[in-house]
Amino acid sequence: MSEPITVAVTRHVDPERAAEVAAWARAGQDLLSARPGYLGSGWIRPDPDSPDWHMLFRFADADSLAAWEASPERAWWVGSAQGLVEDARHERRTGIEGWFDEPSSVEVVSSAPPAPPRWKQMVAIFIVFYPLSLAANAFFGWLIPGWPLWLRVLVSVVTVTPIMTYAALPLVTRALRPWLSRPSRAR
Predict the structure, then answer these.
(1) Which of the four pLDDT bands, split at 50, 70 and 90, describes residue 109?
(2) Who's near 171: CB < 8 A, 6+ residues apart?
(3) Vertex 138: Cα angle to 146 and 153 (nearest 5)
(4) Residues in contact with 93: Cβ distance below 8 Å, sequence separation at least 6, in sequence order
(5) Which comes out higher in pLDDT, residue 69 or 102?
(6) Model confidence at 129, in pLDDT bands (50, 70, 90)?
């Protein structure tokens, strides 16, 4: 007994020609829907400006898929996209690997929280940067007082930047997280 086959095709599309490609994709779905063994199809775009379109279709078995791939309708349809789309990747999955099989579990992934307003980010950076900068300037002013200002500042920046990036800023950001993530009140 043959297993269903799901085919995933990633195609590159010029976003300015999205309306034409959408019509082309619908025509392909119409052609597919008339084929024996056809189980379903669809296409998605990550966002309206993305050049990548992901197209999926599924057939009941390898023979049905092979008949579609050898059909004059498919040859005409693929040929009509010359200069309109560019195939980037094809992938086939069968049986339990198919994307349309009933999932055994569902994982809901929430989107990342929105970034805090820039003024809050500025305050958090200031809380870290000012004391570190003050301490570094005092220390290097004492340690290497005869060096030219540009060289003392360079040594200070090279020393303080990793401390700020990997230790101080994450610590302060964690401490300020409730305030940083609190939505601003509407005026």
Answers:
(1) very low
(2) none
(3) 60
(4) 5, 6, 8, 99
(5) 69
(6) very high
Long-range contacts at 48-52 (CB < 8 A, ≥ 24 apart): 48/15, 48/18, 49/15, 50/15, 51/12, 51/13, 51/14, 51/15, 52/10, 52/11, 52/12, 52/13, 52/88
Residue in the block written with tokens 């992938």: 91
Task: Using CB atoms within 10 Å of the CB of residue 79, give its burial: 0 to 12 exposed, 13 to 18 middle, 19+ buried.
Answer: exposed
Give me 120's structure tokens.
Answer: 């809050």
Q: List the structure tokens of 125.
A: 């950076």
Mean per-residue pLDDT, 155-159: 93
Residue 94's contacts (CB-CB under 8 Å, 6 or more residues apart) are 3, 4, 5, 6
CA distances from 49 to 13, 15, 52, 149, 160 (A): 10, 6, 9, 48, 40
Contact 58, 32 (CB under 8 A): no
Q: How far, in Å, CA of 87 to CA of 158, rounded? A: 47
Residue 112 has pLDDT above 90, yes or no: no
Q: Are 41 and 56 in contact (CB under 8 A)?
A: yes
